[in-house]
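Support request from a user on the community tier.

User writes: "When I paste my C-alpha cells into the form, the page sometimes reloads and wipes my input. The last time it worked, I copied everything first. Here is what I submitted, just in case something in the input itself triggers the reload:"
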C-alpha cells in the first residue's frame, strides 16, 4: 500500500506518542505520593518489540477460581533471564528543569527519561513529565527527540494517569489533546482518550527481583490526528501493565493496532512492545510477599548430565520457585524458573551449584 512522504514522517512519532501515553504508575493500596519520583532514582527493564507470543504473557500461570486478594491469586511469570531479542531499557528520574524541553512543563514535579542500551550504543528515546497532587499523579506531557515531526507534546489538560489509590475493578478515563507540527510548519492537533480498568490481581515473578503482589491494569487507547480541523489519522491500541508496591510499573505490554492515514490502513511499525523490570535502585522489598515456606525433604541426584530435584508438596503452596547460586557465601540467588510440580531438571554446569526451592501461594 502506498504511503506518501508526509505519512512516513508522522508514523514514527505517532508510535512513540502512544508509548508515552501508556500510564507509568504504582499501585496496590498504594498512594500516588509514594511513587518513585526522586531525582537520581532509576530502574532497568528487558525491552523487546514484535514479540510473537504476547497472548501467552497475558494469561495466568495458574488460574484462580474466584476473586482472591494478593498474594493468593493467580501468578504471572516474567522471570526469564534476558533473551537474545531484548535490549535494556533504563528509566532515570530527573528534576523537570534538567529534562529535555523541561521549561514547557512548569507544573511538573519530576521527569522520567527513557534510554535504550545495546552493545553498541545508548540512545535517549523519550522524556515524560509528571506532577503529584492529592488526587493522584498527573501526566503533563513528553518530548520525543530525533523525529521529523515536532517531538514536544504539552497535554491540555494534563491527565490523571494514576488515581491516589488503586483497587481491583476500579476504572478511570482520560481525555486530552496537544498541538504539533509536521516538517516544522504543517499544524496538526492530536486528541487522545482511553479507559483503564484494574482487571486482575495476583503474584508477579520478575527476573532478579523474585515474587511480589501485583495488580494488572488494562487500557484501551484511541488517538486521532486532525489536519486543518479534519480527521487525518487514527489508531486504537491496548496497553497492559502490572503495578507492584515499591516498584511502580513492573511489566508493561503494548499491543499496537493499525493506523488509518488519509483513509488508508497503514500497518504499525511495531505489532507490540514488552518491558519487564529486573532492577530498581529504589526497591527495598518493604511491601513484598510474606516469608515464603520452604518445601520439605528436598532431594537431588545426578543423572545423564542433569541435576534432578524432587521435594514434597508444601501446604498452602501451589507454585515453587527454583533458584541456584555458585557459592554458599554468595547472596545472589539466580531464579531458574517457576513450576507447579514437585520436581525440576537442571543441566549440569562445569562449576558447583547450590539449589533452593521456595513455595508460593
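"...and here is what came back when it finally went through:"
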Amino acid at each position: 500500500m502506498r504511503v506518501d512522504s508526509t505519512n512516513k514522517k508522522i508514523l514514527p512519532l505517532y508510535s512513540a506518542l502512544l508509548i508515552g501515553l501508556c500510564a507509568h504508575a504504582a499501585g496496590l493500596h498504594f498512594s500516588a505520593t509514594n511513587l518513585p519520583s526522586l531525582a537520581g532514582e532509576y530502574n532497568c527493564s528487558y525491552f523487546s518489540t514484535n514479540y510473537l507470543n504476547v497472548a501467552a504473557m497475558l494469561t495466568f500461570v495458574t488460574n484462580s477460581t474466584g476473586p482472591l486478594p494478593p498474594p493468593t491469586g493467580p501468578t504471572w511469570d516474567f522471570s526469564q533471564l534476558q533473551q537474545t531479542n531484548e535490549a535494556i531499557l533504563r528509566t532515570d528520574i530527573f528534576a523537570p528543569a534538567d529534562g529535555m524541553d523541561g521549561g514547557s512543563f512548569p507544573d511538573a514535579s519530576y521527569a522520567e527519561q527513557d534510554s535504550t542500551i545495546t552493545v553498541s550504543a545508548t540512545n535517549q528515546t523519550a522524556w515524560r513529565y509528571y506532577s503529584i497532587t492529592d488526587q493522584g499523579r498527573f501526566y503533563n506531557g513528553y518530548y520525543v527527540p530525533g523525529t521529523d515531526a515536532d517531538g514536544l507534546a504539552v497535554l491540555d489538560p494534563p491527565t490523571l494517569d494514576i488515581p491516589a489509590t488503586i483497587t481491583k475493578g476500579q476504572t478511570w478515563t482520560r481525555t486530552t489533546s496537544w498541538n504539533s507540527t509536521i516538517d516544522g510548519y504543517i499544524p496538526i492537533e492530536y486528541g487522545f482518550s482511553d479507559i483503564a480498568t484494574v482487571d486482575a490481581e495476583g503474584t508477579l515473578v520478575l527476573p532478579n527481583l523474585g515474587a511480589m503482589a501485583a495488580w494488572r491494569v488494562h487500557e484501551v487507547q484511541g488517538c486521532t490526528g486532525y489536519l486543518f480541523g479534519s480527521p487525518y489519522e487514527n489508531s486504537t491500541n491496548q496497553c497492559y501493565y502490572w503495578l507492584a508496591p515499591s516498584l511502580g510499573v513492573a511489566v508493561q505490554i503494548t499491543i499496537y493496532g493499525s493506523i488509518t492515514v488519509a483513509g488508508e490502513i497503514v500497518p504499525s511499525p511495531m505489532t507490540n512492545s514488552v518491558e519487564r523490570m529486573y532492577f530498581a535502585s529504589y526497591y527495598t522489598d518493604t511491601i513484598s510477599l510474606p516469608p515464603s515456606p520452604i518445601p520439605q525433604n528436598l532431594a537431588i541426584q545426578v543423572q545423564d548430565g542433569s541435576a534432578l530435584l524432587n521435594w514434597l508438596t508444601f501446604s498452602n503452596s501451589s507454585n515453587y520457585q527454583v533458584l541456584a547460586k555458585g557459592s554458599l557465601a554468595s547472596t545472589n540467588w539466580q531464579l531458574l524458573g517457576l513450576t507447579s510440580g514437585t520436581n525440576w531438571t537442571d543441566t549440569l554446569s562445569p562449576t558447583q551449584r547450590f539449589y533452593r526451592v521456595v513455595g508460593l501461594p
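Agent notes: The reload is a front-end session timeout and is unrelated to the input. The chain has two domains: 5-280, 299-360. The helical segments are 5-21, 54-57. Escalated to web team.
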